[in-house]
């Protein structure tokens, strides 16, 4: 891990207006700084001219997570000079995950390192080259590209390929829509389902997230909206009217879209919190259990002889057991105790639940849905505990 992140503002006349361009609700300057912090780099240094200082100070006032960031005028060096720094251009958008992965794979060498000589960066630079690297980066991507080509010609540049999902130059506000779309794709999680999430939920949530990210709406507020929409959907699904139940299905799908929006806004704007994680997960589970209750009530009103209420209780127990397994293991992995097992990741999405609900409502067969969950969900969590067990107690929060 590098000792510090140095974010260099370009020195041309139009640089200040470009750095104030908003992408995903944040200025490019704020995004670069927060990305470095989220990647795990605690010492943050921003270099620019006097005219750019006001934008930096506004970023520090508006965004949490930038405490301790230091402003330097061009030509100054930090004191003490970091042994090795990660140099970033704010006009090149990367994800924190991509930056962290690149930083972790850098070779142990006293030389400078970059993905290539394109000038997009990032650049890992030792203290001996820091002053000339900052001066070159003040010339923007072209200046940095010339500097990297010179280092390569002198044989003092190592290369470490960039394997992140995003390294996107943004030269003007006209580049923002495409960059936001690609950033949202890069920020998708491994828990996404392969069908409903991929082709339905993410298509709608991305459109909505891009617009809501420009407002003051918070991820937790979206989570509450998702919960209320889902509970309303469950109540409507309990109707014996086929057309009304279709409305309930639409409301449930809207709740799932909003469930993706809260996470997308949180990742785009770096608005993470422990409360948000717990609220998001438990509200999803509450909506699923409520939907089971709605379908069980509907089946009971139809006069079914298959004990729908008992089936509903069994389905709710199975879904709860599976949810606790996934949530327990996700907390275990989040505390640095290892990667989430593939089987748990595959079960963390709600594609199966959603597809089963679609079939049950569209074919007017609520008992099929209850039977599928009563058997399948309970088998899943029982088999998982028998084969893999639970995370070790000492590794849980």
Structural summary, described in words:
The protein has helices spanning 15-19, 28-38, 50-62, 96-104, 127-137, 140-153, 176-186, 196-212, 219-237, 242-269, 274-301, 308-337, 342-347, 351-362, 366-387; strands at residues 4-8, 22-23, 26-27, 44-48, 70-73, 84-88, 92-94, 112-114, 123-126, 157-159, 167-169. It starts with a strand and ends in a 10-residue tail after the last helix. Helix content is 59%, strand content 10%. Strand 2 and strand 3 form a beta hairpin. Helix 9 (219-237) runs antiparallel to helix 10, helix 9 packs parallel to helix 11 (274-301) and helix 10 (242-269) packs antiparallel against helix 14. It has 15 helices and eleven strands. The chain has two domains: 4-169, Spore Coat Polysaccharide Biosynthesis Protein SpsA, Chain A, CATH 3.90.550.10; 190-395, Up-down Bundle (Four Helix Bundle (Hemerythrin (Met), subunit A)). It is of the alpha/beta class and 397 residues long. The strands form four sheets. It has a five-stranded mixed beta sheet with strand order 5-4-1-6-9, with helices on both faces. Strands 2-3 form a two-stranded antiparallel ribbon.
């Amino acid at each position: 891990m590098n000792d510090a992140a140095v974010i260099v503002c370009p020195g041309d006349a139009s640089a200040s207006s470009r750095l104030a361009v908003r992408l995903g609700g944040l200025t490019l300057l704020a995004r670069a700084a927060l990305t470095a912090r989220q990647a795990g780099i605690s010492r943050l240094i921003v270099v620019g001219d006097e005219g750019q200082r006001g934008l930096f100070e506004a970023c520090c006032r508006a965004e949490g997570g930038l405490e301790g960031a230091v402003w330097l005028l061009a030509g100054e060096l930090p004191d003490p000079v970091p042994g090795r720094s990660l140099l970033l251009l704010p006009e090149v958008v990367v994800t924190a995950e991509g930056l962290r992965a690149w930083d972790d794979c850098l070779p142990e060498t006293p030389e400078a390192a970059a993905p290539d000589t394109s000038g997009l960066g990032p650049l890992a630079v030792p203290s001996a080259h820091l002053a000339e690297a900052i001066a070159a980066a003040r010339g923007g991507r072209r200046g940095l590209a010339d500097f990297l080509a010179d280092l390569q010609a002198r044989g003092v540049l190592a290369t470490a390929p960039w394997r992140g999902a995003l390294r996107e130059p943004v030269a003007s506000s006209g580049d923002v829509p495409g960059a936001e779309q690609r950033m949202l794709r890069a920020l998708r999680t491994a828990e996404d389902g392969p069908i409903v999430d991929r082709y339905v939920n993410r298509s709608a949530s991305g459109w909505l997230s891009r617009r809501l990210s420009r407002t003051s709406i918070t991820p937790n507020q979206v989570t509450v909206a998702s919960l209320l929409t889902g509970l309303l959907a469950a109540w409507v699904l309990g109707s014996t009217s086929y057309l009304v139940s279709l409305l309930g299905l639409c409301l449930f799908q809207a709740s799932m879209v909003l469930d993706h929006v809260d996470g997308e806004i949180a990742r785009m704007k770096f608005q993470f919190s422990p409360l948000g994680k717990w609220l998001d997960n438990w509200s999803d589970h509450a909506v699923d259990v409520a939907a089971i209750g709605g379908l069980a009530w509907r089946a009971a009103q139809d006069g079914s002889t298959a004990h729908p209420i008992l089936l509903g209780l069994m389905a709710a127990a199975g879904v709860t057991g599976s949810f606790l397994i996934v949530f327990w293991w996700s907390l275990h992995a989040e505390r640095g105790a290892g990667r989430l097992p593939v089987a748990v990741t595959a079960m963390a999405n709600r594609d199966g639940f959603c597809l089963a609900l679609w079939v049950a409502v569209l074919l007017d067969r609520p008992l099929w849905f209850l039977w599928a969950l009563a058997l399948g969900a309970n088998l899943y969590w029982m088999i998982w505990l028998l084969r893999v067990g639970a995370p070790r107690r000492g590794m849980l929060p």
